[in-house]
Amino acid sequence: MGRKKNYDRDAVLDKAMNLFWRKGYEGAHLQELVDVTGLNRFSLYKEFGGKEGLYEEAANRYLAGIQALGAILSREPLGLANVSDYLQALIHHDFPYGCFMVNALTQQEVLNERIQAQVRDFVIHSEKALLKNLEAAQRNGEIRPGADVGALAKALVVFDMGMVTYSLMRPNAQERTRVWAIQRELLNGLRAC
Hints:
Layout: H1 9-27, H2 30-37, H3 41-48, H4 51-65, H5 67-71, H6 80-92, H7 100-105, H8 113-139, H9 149-166, H10 173-188
Helix pairs in contact: 1-2, 1-4, 6-10, 8-9
């Protein structure tokens, strides 16, 4: 019979996620992970398969935590209101260390292929969700017929990544509101006459 775990797995993942989020995969050394999680090396390897496995589960935990943001783009009916609500929520959401997944894009050379694929899938999923809403908005007459909604979806992903990175500057509420006002104007410029 195995020994009972003397730790809370969710608490360990939260602590590891925060360390990886702040320092990245390469910057979070194994001894720091041991220190911050309270696990010994044997338990860390037994439970998570080592640093890579712990990083992968920490990334999944992060994604679960921001699921509410992405869910905005799944609301029915699809359209420009979802895009607008998503961008507004994104601008006002606190990303104290940027976005875990966007940060991971800068570390691809040290991440295994499975984690790299997870990061790419995250970005692709975001773009597809935006595109579905933009296409619906175009079909519904909310966006002028000639607008390139595919390029717009890509541009909004770039904005998304830029905004979560801008969060590292700790913008105050007034700065975030100003950014949102410009973004809203850009979206309104797409509306059909």
